Amino acid sequence: MATRPRNEAFIRLRKAAGWTQVRLVAEYAATAQRLGVRGTVTERTVARWEAASPPCPAPAQQHVLEALFGVPLDEMGFEVPEHRRVGRRQFLADLGGLGAASLIPAPEAERARVDAGDLRRLDTDTERVYVLDHTRGSGDAYRLAQALAERVTGLLAEGSYLAAVGDRLQGTLGAVTSHLGWLAYDAMQLESSRAHCLEALATARLSGDRYLEARALANLSLVAVDQRRAWEAAGAAQAAWSAAGRYGGATVRAMLCAREAGALAASRDLTGARRALSHATANLDKSGSDEPPRWAVFFGQAEIDQATAGYYLAAGRPAAAVPFLRATVRALGDGYARNAAHYRVKLAGALLAAGEVDEACSEAEAVAAHVGALDSARTLTLLAALRADLGTVDSITARECGQRLDAALGAGS
pLDDT tens-digit profile of 327-337? Predict the structure, then answer.
């Protein structure tokens, strides 16, 4: 029996991307969500596209497929109506005739095509940034994110791509720039963090990406708290809510409410902070079936617990903050080692402020034992501040703990 002919062009593109039919369905859904295109496809749809004489995808499906694979639909093995054919991206403008056009030098070589493989590699490296950030801290993650931003900028400037692929590249650049804002914050480079946040904010507003705008503003709120610009921290948090809070999923709304609580606590508006925490909890309770964006996946009950602890610390009630910080540390697993260490140092500080010296030292030494695995200036600075506070306590336990912290901080510097 003769082998049944297939749409080899489409199959070749799918396999080059490293996807099974099942994976392609998932990638299609994720890309459609990013592009704001409604509707999904099934494995049966993919099978029909890979068969002989495949049906031409609908216009909305064309938009998603061209973003996925980085080539026009007619290069995927489909018969495409002439009015739906998409030409290659060109950078020559009509300047009013051949005389003006002749002033533009011809490119030395054809621009390299940006395809699905490039997009997949960018996604992989973006994920590596998240993993490094959550497990170790900002050091290596910041350098990788900088290199990634430069690579995306180069592709945008020098590559050849369809409009949908260009949209994805710009979205990636905005997301990486926003993450650079967070990473610089973790590295205690507050002015650089602020600059990255403002750059991401400008990108978001130019592209109309409300999620990116909310993310940039939420990060800017954190930076403003540390810069003692409480009025700006509260304003940025509230603007983040206006940008995406009413439209985003429950997890994003909960995160934005928690950021607002932190900003209001820093400005001593404890009533407002308590109200924002209540809203954060209510939104998190609705997040069971939520699928948050990658940058908000980390957010859960542990983050609300630590925000609640921050409220009690701002209110001068360290003993009340202790159980919430304990719950935070217990909830964070190995995938969030940096955050777990950071909040454990905060727990030690709250215990010390509450007069529980022995317990404070126990928590501090647990962090000190793993200082070598941390690459977070923010956490190490907090640990150094705890060491200074221990120096004011007249007890053998505090002195011995201080010596161990000196050794750990010295080795980690």
Answer: 999 887 666 78
C-beta atoms surrounding 36 within 10 Å: 8
Specify the pTM.
Answer: 0.71
21-62 pLDDT tens trace: 888 888 888 888 767 777 788 999 999 999 988 899 888 888
Sequence length of the chain is: 413
Buried/exposed code over 273-310 (b: 16+ C-beta within 10 A; e: otherwise): beebbebbbebbeebeebebbebbebbbebbbbbbbbb
Domain residue spans of the chain: 8-81, 115-248, 317-413
Smallest CA-to-CA distance from 195 within 255, 257, 146, 141 is with 146
Q: Is the pLDDT of residue 290 over 80?
A: no
CATH number of 115-248: 1.25.40.10
**What CA–CA distance (Å, rounded) separates 124 from 357?**
45
